[in-house]
Amino acid sequence: WDTAAGDAVLRAAGGITTHPDGSVYRYGKSGYRNTEFLAWGQKNGWD
Fold first, then answer.
1. Which domain holds residue 25?
2. Coil, helix or strand for 27?
3. Count of domains in the chain?
4. What is the DSSP string of the chain?
5. Which of 2, 18, 39, 40 makes the best surface tag, with the fewest CB within 10 Å?
6. What values do phi and psi take at 14, rounded to 5?
């Protein structure tokens, strides 16, 4: 949950937060822990 606010701001600006393997961050799952991440300024090529 500590990354959710920053992720929301980044997404609103057109960016995206992913795991290093390229999978999109998910919230509301049974395990709350999200580990390493990459923050991208543009999501081109990540759809």
1. 3-41
2. coil
3. 1
4. -TTHHHHHHHHHTT-EEE-TTSPBP--SSSS------EEES--TT--
5. 2
6. 100, 5
